[in-house]
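Quarterly update from the structural biology core.
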Amino acid sequence: LISSIVLLLLLPFVLIQNKAVDFILNVFFSGKTVNTPAELNQIMSQFHVVGFHELPEEFLHASGMDRPKYRNACSGMKFYVLSRKDTYQKIAGDFRIHQFISYNFYSRSFNPFKKYTIYWGIDKRILLELLKLRNLMEENGLNLRHIGIASGYRTPSENDFVGGATMSRHIFGDAVDIRIGDVNNDGKFTKRDKDQIIDICEKLINGRGGMGLYPGTRILHIDLRGHRARWNSYSRKK
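Predicted structure, tokenized:
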């Protein structure tokens, strides 16, 4: 009981500390905006890549990928091996790698200065789609600063924690949830802002993947599952 109370008392300090470190590292690793597939590919090529069967058992257990259904489903995935410093690099536009990483203990330590290895199971194709989205937004006069990343790659454990679908495309690294703001610069977020991004993503994704529209929210899910899928409500069946 006492240890639990101490942890609760320390938690705000730890979170503030992590936010401060994040801010400092974001500034320090400012980097240039990544605008082209060639620039994105050049950054990704710097990282060592391992297959599913090369992942350490400790990570497989912590991530939930040691469960039989995920061992089978994720067996063909590739993972980029990163340090914490790597995650502050810009990777698509001004989005940074850490914005696409699930926040389980293995990828986000309470000790912001601790050294550890991150295994990032992202599918590069979804990052390339975000570059295309940015380009089309610019062509349509929309504000690039008013979209963000709500979720990218998730381990099965992190996906369970947030209530995601059992076989969410986030687990396979080919999905992102986009947070939409006042992209048309009229001074407020409205349905019109989201509709404009939906229209662009419909052209991008078309029959190649899924889109979760989630009316009444700022969130739009896109993925590259290989066939068309559309839905409105949150459901663990998706």
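Helices lie at 2-28, 37-44, 57-63, 68-73, 124-139, 156-161, 191-205.
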